[in-house]
Amino acid sequence: MNIPEKQLKRVDLIFAETEVYETLEIAFKRDKQEVLNEILESGLRGRGGAGFPTGLKWKFTAEQPSEEKYVICNADEGEPGTFKDREILTRVPLKVLGGMAICGHIIGAKEGYLYLRGEYRYLVAHLDTYLNSFNDWLKKHGIDFTIYIRMGSGAYICGEESALFESMEGKRGEPRNKPPYPTVAGFRNKPTVINNVETLVYATVICKYGASLFKNLGTFDSRGSKVFSVSGDTPVAGIYELDFGMTVERFVEEFGDGDTKAVQVGGASGFCVPRKKFKETIIGFEGVPTGGSMKLFNSSRSMYNVLHNYLDFFHEESCGQCTPCRIGCQQLLHGIEAVKKGEKSTAYLITLLKLAETMKIASKCGLGQSVGNSFKSIVENFKEEMIY
Amino acid sequence: MKNTINLKIDGITVTVDKGETILAAAKRLGIKIPTLCYHEDLCVAGNCRVCIVEQTGMRTLPASCATPATEGMEIFTNSLKVRNARKHIVELLLSEHNADCTKCYKNGNCELQNLASETLVNEPMFLDLVPGNKYTIDKYNPAIIKDDSRCIRCQRCVRTCEELQGVSALSVAYKGSKMKVSAFLEHSLNEVVCTNCGQCINRCPTGALVERNYVDQVWDELLNPNVHVVVQTAPAVRIALGEELGYAPGQRVTGKMVTALKRLGFNSVLDTDFTADLTIIEEGHELLNRLKRALVDKDPTVSLPMATSCSPGWIKFIEHTYPEYLNNLSTCKSPQQMFGALAKTYYAQKRGIDPKNIISVSIMPCTAKKFEANRPEMRDSGYKDVDYVLTTRELARMIKQAGLDFQHLEDSKYDSIMGEGTGAAVIFGATGGVMEAALRTAYEVVTGREVPFEKLRIMPVRGMEGVKEASVLIENTLPEWSFLNGVELKTVVAHGLTNADAVMRKVKNGEGGWHFIEIMACPGGCLGGGGQPIPTNKEIRKKRAEAIYAEDEGLPIRKSHENPEIAMIYSEFLEKPLGHKSHDLLHTTYKPRLRY
Amino acid sequence: MTEVQELVRSLTDRHGRTRESLLPILQGVVAKESYLSDTVMTEIAKQLDISAAQVFGTATFYSFLDTEPRGKYVIRICKTITCDMHGKRQIAKAIEDLLKIKAGETTTNKKFTLLEANCLGWCHEAPAMLINDTPYTKLTPEKVLEILTDYMQNK
User: Fold this and answer.
1) What are B402-414's pLDDT values in tens digits?
2) B205: left (phi over 0), alpha (psi -120 to 50) or beta
3) pLDDT tens profile A118-165
4) Which residue segments constitute the domains of chain A, with CATH numbers given?
5) Where are the domains of chain B?
6) Which of A174, A231, A239, A290 is the best mutation test for C, with the most CBs of C within 10 A?
7) Could you tell me if C17 and C80 lie in one domain?
8) Is A254 exposed, middle or buried (0-12, 13-18, 19+ CB in 10 A)?
9) Measured between CA atoms, how close is B201 to chain A, in angstroms?
10) Is there a contact between B266 and B362 (Cβ–Cβ < 8 Å)?
11) For the domain B94-211, what is the CATH code?
12) What pLDDT score does A323 carry?
């Protein structure tokens, strides 16, 4: 099959000024099923990284018979290299709140929570002003839905949805066993939709413009556009909304500094794409998925240092409850140190790669399951940098 | 809706109930999937990942303990993928674990060791992380030693302390590579709300939580020709000791245990049952006395309901948690401490031995008794009343050390004096037992008739339900107890501190209307005590309970007040229940402790 | 009522006394006192009717809920990859030299604590740091000195 390659195209949906309240008024007047169908039809998938179809998530939750349901906006943006949610919350907070209200309307929730990472506490005052008038507006329009803010306190793992619920319930942010999934038993063990900040904004956007505008962007597996956080060795670090589904090559042409040797797509838990694979690698669910983190490394960088930094991050930020993740992260970290120092032979990297594979399939949650992504892709592509 | 589910495990189709886990489904097929963090008594954690299985169509390997079976599921418990991952997981656990097994108290009874052996672990696959970790050992507690270097973070202890005991002296602290099981501020268990119940020990798969053992000290005393070593054995020891020595749960080994103790060199092998009977007399009179003060004298200062005081875990719990109710506790010492006080007074006198040369040892199903024996108020004999407390497990170890072929020992009888016990005393080892024993005696004292239950079996207080209520209508009393005529004596029995807490909350709210409360800190009562053989589960505890009641029915005397040695001690030494001597030796006081 | 009791009381009045209110309460204490003292944690345990170990266990899970004394201003330098690539070490050194403390330490006048943090979400403006809740980005050693001098003199 020969699919024409996507060109890099800027899009302006997320940050474009729109009258959110107007969108809401129309959405609330429409049949709930019709609005849900719009989301389903758009092909929108979660923008946090995992990419679960948003419409399905809403549908499953809507179908639950419970009287008590919740909408949660996951603003625990902790993936190294991701900063777009902060920007979205700064520039278009109403669109986020709007997405939550639309979701609440469809699934039958009366409360929404925005879980904001502790690192962004400075945003609370700003958000509060919007939140108060937004809640007032809902009340005035007879909509029984109220949004509250809950704060994190410095724990990457709380971005994992069930860990986030635990944290909101006043506990250690330790991921739960699944099933049950949040759509059945989430916050307070009630059916819950939990969406990333960006996803909720796209929901608002889709409600405003209809599914087709969104659907016509992107690729078959990765519909729409996506907000990218671009950093590292780039002259133009920043936040960009792009048509989804381009190759890494196109991306590097636009954002690289002319000497890009690797791009880490999806942050520490994502994949490292080396130069030789730029051309063949699509940024999206059919290739390398990303919550938006795009880090460029030029040839002056040691990929050993990059990996070491990531593993240092993971061995601190693992919740610590499950064996493969808690101990695996330590073994990978100290393992590459030992190889580098010559205390372990090069062959030990093979052992570590196998361990990374076990972590991918045997860890309890997405954190432990994704440590292997960066480990494998960096070690396999930059083996000599690990040794010398 | 359909209530059964069909799935395939290792190629075999199995039908299970809805909600059943893959682990349980595999068990039905005779497939034992290895586990570590899983424990029948506790909620599912799913964190050790040892029980992972392969599911067709799934990229990841689900934890079988935490994943419910679903229709049409196809599971492989021993595929290559599973085997490789499981081996990694065991290797990882070992890399973080102080695996110096020969120096570990749990050597030979360690779930991690067994798993490592099954998995054929040989040369370490990964780096040894133990030296880089600053593990601490908490050895400042008289009952429990916590060695973090042996901990595999399965959190069974944390769940035990929270779910079964409602204490949460232990919690998980920190995260990532620093994550550990910790008391408040990483204090010693000695300094926090820990009740020393030892339930965490019973559920620790490794040697991270063990009792502080006094085996060597006791051997030293036994081999010292200048001292006279007496030993008492608690009721629940005789029905569980066998489990450590090759018997199935529920086997009574009373006679062999007595023989073994004699062979170990104890100068006198006596029975805590004797002081359990004594407790019934003292505590029964205390209860009747309180009832009289309340009903006849209308004394507003009398504290009712009265609560039992035999369980030192419960005592420490109430001292921490409900200090305002300390007056509701019976002032009776536990049978162990009554025994200790009498061993160095009454026994010493009768046997003509200088009490300073008596060493008193007790064999207990309990770790809290170690703490209790060390309480400063437990020296009423003028000496430390109980010098050493050994658990059932420690006794088994001594028997093994001495090379005794336990299963082929002859039966023998307890020595005298203080070796005589009744069926009422034996049932102290089970939840509801103290209540039943007390009712057997109190009812008869008051009415002159036996309790109106067939074969003295007071069924409402028996069994493993967490909180059991029972009431007995008192009619046609003897003349001196006429004030109790028509009174419905209301009682409640709870075991496990979570249940105790529920009862106390009700008391606090003025609910229940009870006169008498029996609390035992451990699930199932002493038979499930923190010093009992490992493992423990509902089935094992049930077997032990059956053994206890069988022991009761096999004894010629089943009511405490009919114990001839009890009559003797009152006539020769104590004079009367709640008398002056009793007050000095058999009763105690309690002190409020920090709540947090 | 002691000061600690009053602080906890005001927070429980605001956030409630259920387990769910634990995090907001801990955050409230840290916002006011920079860290969670032993007495604060036991008071919170008492008010929420949970064990002190549970309060401690929960607090120590979160990097921003310190259980050790901290200065009035807690500086958290981002140590994750982009900041590391763009001069985090020089920034840390500049601060260490100025305040005469190392990462993890607090100045003797209890004004500053220097810590390292994982990704703060400012990679495009690396290197970055937080002083309490306020982010500072595109740092250079000179800029850091300027910022901290301002804190030393004016705050």
Assistant:
1) 999 999 999 999 9
2) alpha
3) 999 999 999 999 999 999 999 999 999 999 999 999 999 999 999 999
4) 20-215 (3.40.50.11540), 225-298 (3.10.20.600), 303-387 (1.20.1440.230)
5) 4-78, 94-211, 276-332+421-585
6) A231
7) no
8) middle
9) 20
10) no
11) 3.30.70.20
12) 98
